[in-house]
Amino acid sequence: MVPLLALRDLADSLGVPLVPEKTNPPKGGDVDAALRTSVDRLLTHQQKDGSFGLWPGSSEGDFYITAYALWGLDEARRRGLPVPEGALDHATRSLVSSLAAPFPAADPSALERAAFALDVLARARRADESRMRALFGERARMPLFARALLLHAFVLSGRADADEARELLRDLETNIRIDGPAAHLARASETQTPVHDFDSSVRADAAALLALVATNPTHPLAARLARGLVDARAGGAYRTTHEAAWALLALDAYRKKNPAPLDPVEARVFLGDTLLADAPLGGESGKIRRAAFVPMPALLRGRGAPLTFEAVGGGHLHYEAILRYARLEMPREPLDAGFYVTKSFRPVADLGGPVLAASAEAEPRFDPGQVVLCEIEVVTREPRRFVVLEDPVPGGLEPMRLAHQVGGPWLASLEATPAERREMRDDRVVYFIDRLPAGIRKFRYLARAAHIGRFVVPPTHIEEMYTPETLGRTGGTYVRVGAK
């Protein structure tokens, strides 16, 4: 929800449609409906004590999740979305009561979470200055990201001139590294800071930019940090929605304090000698964006020709080129980048009956109506956090949504997994695992062979949500239902 809030603000101010098919969308439009739904769903995670759990059915709340939920709900309220005041007050009281103080006994990870919570409270105009000063006394044990958040909290609470804020600002400036036109906060390897959940250079740079912009909007390092955040994207996107949330909010804060001049520019785009677009932007035209679409046949006719962007005039032209395509062949080879994954199909004699041996055929075959056990085996050499396992279901099979009271102990034992949550969708089954120990784990569910034919089995995919480069997948294959 938080990245979508920031993205909506940026899109509305720049006149960029968030739904590509709608060239002149109403302001907000479908995005507002999605945000209202997100608020309603988030409120279902709130516990009786005001805290928030990771899932709607969580038995207890989590300190970090509560802080993150309060952040999102407060940002939504400030943008005019309906958020019950009682839910915000209840969450605030829960967060304040859970803050560990005095802090000397806390480990660095707990100090980081406390800094985040104090910053969230300051954003929500519920600053806790006594705990902020207490946490300042432990700054030597805090990572730079947490120190930047604490500075941000002091500034938002109206204490930018306090000795603590001045010291945190000097500390932040000392640890910013200039890299050409960009700048970045020193990484953990340089500051001997331990690795924490959700840690990333993008998040750290975003926290530093938020703190600098709040302290001094024209700070000479702010523009370089903003450039570093823009350059951190890969393929036009950040690694995770968590990074996107921090980066977009920081860049939006910088943009609001430092609006770019809109000097006119004539923008032209060529594919070889073919003119694709010619548009006046900025200045009196009032236009700041123009899109050109090239169908694949036209792109192939210009194969080998350069794609050229030309700017005429005193303004700056920012541009991107996106290539969209579909594979003719699905990936057939498995991939192990931290997870080794295999998938098998086995027939079940009957509900409650024995699971039969897997077929030795290259393409498993099942009789129409037969119950099938789908089993995914995951191997990881290291413990993993916040893992998502997504298993597409072949078109010929349909997942069976059976309550455990129907299947009894047999079904409960068969489908037992280390996952905190499982979602049975029409075309896939998704598991969410908060903590996955090192070793081998199995994930099973039942499906029924419902349609006759030969069907694609897309690759099963697993990754850590907040370090998506740690991943694995199976190779694609086929399955048959009915006669050979």
TrEMBL record:
It comes from Polyangium mundeleinium. Residues 338-469 form the Bacterial alpha-2-macroglobulin MG10 domain. SUPFAM superfamilies: Terpenoid cyclases/Protein prenyltransferases. PANTHER family: ALPHA-2-MACROGLOBULIN HOMOLOG (PTHR40094), UBIQUITIN DOMAIN-CONTAINING PROTEIN (PTHR40094:SF1). Pfam families: bMG10. InterPro entries: Bact_MG10, Terpenoid_cyclase/PrenylTrfase, YfhM-like. This is Bacterial alpha-2-macroglobulin MG10 domain-containing protein.
